[in-house]
Amino acid sequence: MRYRKIILIAAAVSSLLLLPHRAKAVIPPDFVFNIASLAFQTFSLITIIFATTFGSFISFFRKEFIWLKGHPKTFIAIVIFLLAIAATGGYLYAANARKDAYIKWLKADQRKNTIIHETTTP
């Protein structure tokens, strides 16, 4: 008797599924699989590139800078110097790019204001 009510409720709910309603787009499973495969392959390629670059870098430093083996302070000073040069270059490049973008925006804004002024003046 108790199961009869449950079966009737389930039949009523499932009959609602048979009524016409708008279909919703569903992403095909192969599309999701392709996206995941692409992400995995991209991550693998980036990892391989970084690993080979790092390995080459370490191999180069082992061969060329063997004299630094007993001088860790010199090595640390060289690394800090190189990082400072890289940071300064990055800052100067960003500042130059920001200045160029501002000049470009200023010229476009002046052109826009000139056009607006020409169209609004009697």
Provide a descriptive summary of the structure in words.
By secondary structure, this protein is mainly alpha-helical. The protein folds into two domains: 26-64; 69-122. Helix content is 83%, strand content 0%. The chain has three helices and no strands. The longest helix has 49 residues, at 72-120. The mean pLDDT is 82.
- If helices are DSSP runs of H or I spanning 4 or more residues, what is the number of helices? 3
Rg is 33 Å
N-to-C terminal Cα separation, in Å? 88 Å
Oligomeric grouping of the chains: single chain
What's the helix-strand series? HHH
Average of the residue pLDDT scores: 82
Class derived from helix and strand content: mainly alpha
- Number of structural units classed as domains: 2
Task: Count every beta strand, where a strand is a DSSP E run of 2 or more residues.
Answer: 0
**Largest beta-sheet characterization:** none
Helix residue percentage: over 70%
Q: Which spans of ≥5 residues are poorly predicted at pLDDT below 50?
A: none
Percent of residues in β-strands: under 5%
Question: How would the blueprint of this fold be written?
Answer:
Blueprint: H1 2-17, H2 29-64, H3 72-120
